[in-house]
Amino acid sequence: MSVYQRVVDWIDLRLGVRDILEQNLTHYLLPRNINVWYTLGAVLLTLFGIQFITGILLLVYYVPDTGQAFDSVQQIMNEIPFGWLIRYLHVVGSNLIVIALLLHMLSVLFMAAYKTPRELTWVSGFLLLNLTLGLCLTGYLLPWSQLSFWATTVATDAAGAVPVIGDDIVRFLRGGAMVNEATLGRFFALHVMGMPLLFGLLVGVHLFCVRRAGISRPPFGDGYVPRGPRYTFEHEHHYGGIPFFPNYAVKDAAVISFFLVLLAAIVFFWPTLFMPPAGFEPADPFTTPEHIKPEWYFLWAYQTLRIFPDKFLGLAVQVAAMTFLALLPFIDRSRERRPARRPLFLICFVAGIGVFVALSIWGHYA
Amino acid sequence: MSDPSKSPPKRRAFLVTLLSGLAGLFAAAVLYPLWRFLSPRKGTGEQEKVRLERASVPLGGAHFFNFRGGPAVVVQPQAGSFIALSAVCTHLGCVVKWQEENDEFFCPCHAGRFSPRGEVLGGPPPQPLPELNVEVEGDQILIG
Amino acid sequence: MAKQVIVLILASVLFAPWSALAAESSCVECHRPQPGALGDPVGQWEGSIHQRHGINCSSCHGGDPTIMSMEAMSLEKGFLGVPAEDDIPSFCGSCHAGVMEDYLLSAHGQALGAGGPHCVTCHGNHAVELASLDIINRDLCTRCHEYGQADEMKSAMAKVDDKISSLQEETRRLRKLGFATEKIKNSIFSVRNQFHQLFHTVNVETVRSQTEEFSQELEKIDQQVAAMHQEVKNRKLLGGGVVVVLGAICILLVLLRKTYKDEEERVHPPGPPSMRP
Question: Which residue has the higher pLDDT, C100 or B42?
């Protein structure tokens, strides 16, 4: 008996790991018609892992002080061996995450996987999306560049549209009247501790929901029939399906490596794709750079604020749209999941994407 | 390599072999930058001498300073003669104190005692304090 | 919020286009409609580098542009009017002090008042533009002397001039890639400033020896820039390797997936999947 065998036996005797692995890997069966979109969860988990690791590495040299933050980032970019690589991985990685998150959400929408009994999976996923955007926003300030400073000024300023208490909210977000040391302090704490902790917890909840309810069967093919109503909890089994490991895990790995190719290609050949020149100028509270624009994934919100003559109205529309998305499973309650039989939904789906893209492009060129 | 005539398990074994090779290469491409990123940096001041004001070392007294990242001390037992030593006790690494009344170094951790030249006078230290080179240049002292 | 408003107001005052303020000055108001030498300078000045940087009539000619009467041009208000030819260097030199010094020491400056050229001879007056080496040209120089020496100086300086512009351009590009170019930018700027002192010496020997020195200094800076370019290349090389390896891994994984897919289809041929047993 090999040493490896003996070690596994020893652990197995005490913790029954073979059983756990069987249940969750080799005997965990997935629907036979499972498609490539189901890999996005694994892709996101990997990308977040990269953010987590590169984030800790950046923390080794980053100094969260308005006087030193920019220089410490410059040092990472120029003096620390491969510091540029770690930083660009973190920057580009965050953008790829938003792309993957949007694709993940769109595929779940299209296949109506958010419907009962998976409302909680959807809601936890939606919270994760918002937390990710929060991480993007707080992380943006940390390099203390012109881009950081003014993007944060503009973003926090949007909260001023709330009637009566708007100014107080802005002050609270910034920790003062203007973006300053206090803002950096609270954004730093949120970005490296508060939000990641909450994020980890929510990922746990999300995965638990996915695993407990069982993978949803893609609503395609002749054999698909919507499930009838359930009155007790029931895990959705896929008898005769394909094992998660190794069959589907290989597909996960293939798509993950595809995203890694994308990440590496941008980091090495087009590193400033998501980094305008203002990102390399130290923050100057007395000079607003020209043509300051938010990140691409906030452009839709930025443009919405500009379309409406009243700032509050713009903000209200955004909040309404986000709330609608968050509560979608409670609004759209029919059992039908096949896209072809949900024409109204399909129209809204395509129109929604269209509006998002149009607003973003408009915001970019406005 | 994806010859359909071959059975899936055979193709699979071949692919897995290739993959593990590439995965090794990729792991190296990840680990090397990581290693370099975290390696201590060769500070520009590592080999430089430390320059002190002569007046900062009182006669019969000691002056503690930072020498290439570690604590060090310079004493002036007689006028014009300076001795520089590492201030790290050779026993367990505490920083020694200068006791002007006894003219000796005392380690507060386990009562090790050293002479102004760094020799062990008593207590557990196994070795004398390492001595550093001193040059006097006008009203300045060069150490290192 | 209040602080923000103050900053915004401050910013708008600091960065307001000066032409808007200058246009309201009494000089422009009264002189613009006047014919000939009294009115022409207004149009010449508009669009000039002086106008673009907020240097207006009173900056050079004195007087008080806020007074809407002839009193604006009174001596008490520091009005200087049109300088005599001999006074032109000190007129311009009130701002361009270093250049005036260089000029007065040069052969050109020594000949001031004896038919020698002054600032306006070469640079023009109201329509002044950013000075460049093109000011040294056959037409201008041969008005007083042979072009030979001037041409020699020009070609010696052109090399340094080109090098400075190209280095400045390259550092701007590298900065956009995240390189710390502040130091290099400063050393280029310092060489540039020293180099510009040469322009008014009009001494072939000085120009020849000094341009040599500047070239050497620029060479050193060029090496630093070249090292950064090399770094960019190295990153792409490394990146190429990583992308190829990852791409190969991706393809192999797709093929690996296919081996499982083949097996799956052998057990359950494609077609309507069987319902739950």
Answer: C100
- CB burial readout C173-207, b (16+ within 10 A) else e: ebbebbbbbeebbebbeebbeebbebbbbbbeeeb
Q: Which residues, 6 or more positions from A364, have their beta carbon under 8 angstroms from its beta carbon?
A: A293, A296, A299
What is the average pLDDT score of chain A? 94
Q: What was the ipTM of the complex prediction?
A: 0.93
B41 touches chain A (CB under 8 A): yes
Domain containing residue B77: CATH number: 2.102.10.10
Q: Does position B48 have pLDDT exceeding 90, yes or no?
A: no
Residue with tokens 């609608």: A324
Count: domains in chain B: 2
Confidence of residue C267 (pLDDT cuts 50, 70, 90): confident
Kindly give the pairing relationship between strand A29-30 and strand B70-78.
unpaired
In a domain, A102, yes or no: yes
B59 touches B79 (CB < 8 A): yes
In whole angstroms, give the CA distance from residue C274 to residue C277. Answer: 8
Q: What's the CA gap between A79 and C179, in Å, rounded?
A: 10
Same domain, B123 and B71: yes
- For residue range C158-207, list pLDDT tens digits in order: 989 999 999 999 999 999 999 999 889 999 998 888 888 888 888 888 88
Q: What are phi and psi of A56, to 5 degrees?
A: -65, -40
Chain A residue closest in CA terms to B16: A250
Decide if pLDDT at B1 tops 60: no
Residues B130 and B66 in one domain: yes
Contact: B38, A57; criterion CB under 8 Å: yes
Domain count, chain A: 1
Q: What pairs with residue B85 in β-bridges?
A: B73, B131
pLDDT per position as a tens digit, A68-104: 999 999 999 999 999 999 999 999 999 999 999 999 9
Judge whether A161 lies within some domain.
yes
Spell out which residues of chain C touch residue B25, defining contact as CB-CB under 8 Å. Answer: 245
Closest residue in B to C238 (Cα) is B29
Residue A160 in domain: yes
Based on the domain organization, do B76 and B134 belong to the same domain?
A: yes
- Which pLDDT tens digit goes with each residue over B55-91? 899 988 899 998 887 889 999 988 888 999 999 999 8
Which chains share 3+ C-beta pairs under 8 angstroms with A? B, C
Q: What is the CATH number of the domain that holds A320?
A: 1.20.810.10
Same domain, B79 and B22: no
- The string of pLDDT tens digits covering residues C116-151 is 899 999 998 999 988 888 889 999 899 889 998 899
A82 touches chain B (CB under 8 A): yes
SS3 label, residue B50: strand
Determine whether the interchain pair C245/B9 forms a contact, defined as Cβ–Cβ distance below 8 Å: no
Same domain, B26 and B55: no
A81 shares contact with chain B (CB less than 8 Å): yes
Q: Do B22 and C252 touch (CB under 8 A)?
A: yes
Give me the residue from A60, A79, A85 closest to B38, CB to CB.
A60
Residues of C in contact with A170 (CB under 8 A): 1
Q: Which domain holds residue A42?
A: 14-227+236-365
